[in-house]
Fold this protein.
Amino acid sequence: MSCTYLQCIEESCGRRQDPAADLHSCAFCGGLLDVKYDFGPVEPLNLRQTWRQRRLSDDPIDRSGVWRFRELVPFVDPGARIITLSEGFTPLVGTPRAGEWAGPVNLTVKHQGANLTGSFKDIGMTACITRAVARGARWVACASTGNTSSSMAAYAARAGIKALLFVPLNQISAPKLAQALDFGALVVEVGNNFDAAFRLLLEVAPELGLYLVNSINPFRIEGQKTIVPEMLEQRGWRSPDYIAVPGGNLGNSSAIGKGLHELKDLGLIEKIPRLVIVQAAGASPFWETLRTGANELLAIEDPHTEASAIRIGHPANWKKAKRALEWAGGFCESVTDEEISKAKEVLAHDGVACEPASATTLAGVRKLVQAGKIEKGADIVCVLTGHQLKDTEYILRHRAGEKARGQRIQVEPELNSLRRELQRALGGR
């Protein structure tokens, strides 16, 4: 692996740029940037064996589900300080009840909520904060609906640098805000949605010398793409028919697309699975853009959905996500909050829980099977991006009133009263 460089993704530009420059967009046309490598000769079987052997290592770098695959992310100089919290190594779990409900299909879930801060953001943040430290950053910053902020705050604390985050006022779940505060971040509550907070951050970042870690930072995508080799290794390097992922700012789907494309080019996989991106109906600008065939993003100024992690109306990575769908022959779907809620409930019946945004994947698979776009019996991996405790208000809200009848019992602290209530509750079970 001889060379790392940045390259504009716009076909009309495509210029290479110096990776030593802290760029988030093309210096010539303003387009998004890729981190690219001139990979040297690769022997797939040897590389797979190397990655597998590292699982037995006690080295903290090898205990990371990102840096174990460091041949795929060679932008770090030898001997550089790696900021890691043993991210990755997340489970791939079979969900037979959910698969039957959705199709039937052969369904497994890759649960990124098992990362240390409870979301997929950790596997991108280890790469991004490692890069920030190498560049001598004193402050890192992001705008966030919650998961990015808590992850950034944790990794900044680990690195010993300061974290500044912009969040929409009263639009972030309490557990996510609590995480960021607990890790010591400075929190600016501004605007009524992610897009407003992000716009303001972009304006002040250059003035204050802030190192941005949102997914427009191409080095964060490099960490997030390592979900692909980890997932495929767990499957014995058999590609599924489909990989379904929630669509918010579209960095994750872009990263998965890039990871699949690189593994195919390196000869590590023979088949690229079809990529399915699922958005919430009230915040589905990417789906609407693809549905109408528009050449430019049909942004939503006031996105709304209970799935707060993907409540984004102007996804910065939409062009990368579109490219990922073209590479993988995939498609996009939109699901309602009601469909998301039901899918979340179905996953819980398999003992698998997640935050609402994650359940869009299952809801989208069911909808696509019913429409005949996904065949029954297909082999599908749904990516769950966040832990169930990321949004406890949602659970309590949906398990209140009539729906909670028979599930929550209030009783006087007296034995006979307890017996009566339990007999009534258990009698029909």
